Amino acid sequence: MSLKEKIKNYAYELGADLVGFGNIDRCEHAPIMMSPQGLFRGRKRLW
């Protein structure tokens, strides 16, 4: 099982409805209140 799968499974066990991984650039044009950049300034990747 990959690390991503382990993280997803753990998050689901904790009650998460949705878990995903991606490059932060995908959120480049999102409003700051709906974007990871609003919460995690300076980050290049989200886990």
Structure keywords:
single chain, 47 residues, alpha+beta, two-stranded antiparallel sheet, 2 helices, 2 strands, 32% helix, elongated
- What is the SS-derived class? alpha+beta
- Give the helix tally: 2
Q: Which series of helices and strands comes N to C?
A: HEHE
Largest sheet, in brief, is: 2 strands, antiparallel
* Strand residue percentage: 5-15%
Strand arrangement in the largest pleated sheet: 1-2
User: Termini, distance in Å?
Assistant: 17 Å
* Assembly state: single chain
> How large is the radius of gyration?
12 Å
* Outline type: elongated
What is the average per-residue confidence, as pLDDT, rounded to a whole number?
84
Fraction of residues in H or I helices? 25-40%
Unreliable parts: none
> How many separate structural domains?
1
Describe the protein's architecture and organization:
The protein is of the alpha+beta class. It has one domain (3-46). The chain is built from 2 helices and 2 strands. A two-stranded antiparallel sheet has the order 1-2. The longest helix has 11 residues, at 3-13. The protein is elongated. The protein starts with a helix and ends with a strand. The model has no long low-confidence stretch (mean pLDDT 84).
Short description:
The chain is α+β, with helices and mostly antiparallel strands and 47 residues long. The chain has one domain.
